[in-house]
Amino acid sequence: MPRVKGSPSKCIKSGNPSNPACSWLFLIKGDLVDQGGRPLDIVKLRHPASGETAMFLFSPNNETVQELITFSEDKRSWFIDDTVKQDGKLQLSTPFDPLFLVVPYLAKATATAPLEQLLHDEQFPETSRLLKCSGMQNLSVIADRKGDEDLNAYKFNEEKLMKWLEKKSEKVAEVLKSKNVHVLGGSLSATFVKSSADAVASKEAFMKYAHGIISEYLSEDLSAKLYQHLKLPPDETTSAKRKSVPASDQKDVKKIKLDDENVSEVSKGDALDLSKSEKSGERNEHKHD
Asked: Residues in domain Ribonuclease H2 subunit B wHTH (predicted)?
């Protein structure tokens, strides 16, 4: 597993690996695992839904970004080599589409501006790393390029955004269905639970649940607009959102109970993998395992 590095005030240090009390345990998905020993960076960025601090993991050269989610449970510890780490938290990384992080900056801009200027955030200076992410080449699916190409200026396009989010929602719904995730009923579990019942959920039920997952990365206003765009019926139980870890303080994480089966399913990251970008006008396809 690659080394994770930090820098003062901007990144969270991983600590001395020889001292379990100062170490974190990571479960990293994807190509980040094979980086030839090059360090990965954990940085603080503005969460696209709440605007509060959230933790993300960047690959060397900032080409890809993954969301960090902390899973915690009472009375759990880790054996690391010949030592015991009493803090049993698990840091899980999942691929993440950087466009979700860009949406709030585009949406609040009152005029066309260069992308570098749009992503300038004094409170979260690491936001500039997004400029180098490979996913940024698809920015035209949520914004309109203005002026010369060298200017790299964009203006937010809400109609494009809704179409892009619709494709994201459809893909998540397909994954939920292929995994036989239980989406019927009111308030649902914070983890993905396979249905043991014979009830067959409709496409609408999967889309409503998918909308809840996607909405974890949208403002309330955009979440409501997406719900209307998806033409989902009014329902008091529509907030079937995945319970994410509070982003403002990693010391006060919400404790999510995981059994072995749920860890296996969640670690695959299928339903949470929001890194694959859907280009406007393209047919959405999903490959089953």
From this structure: 100-226
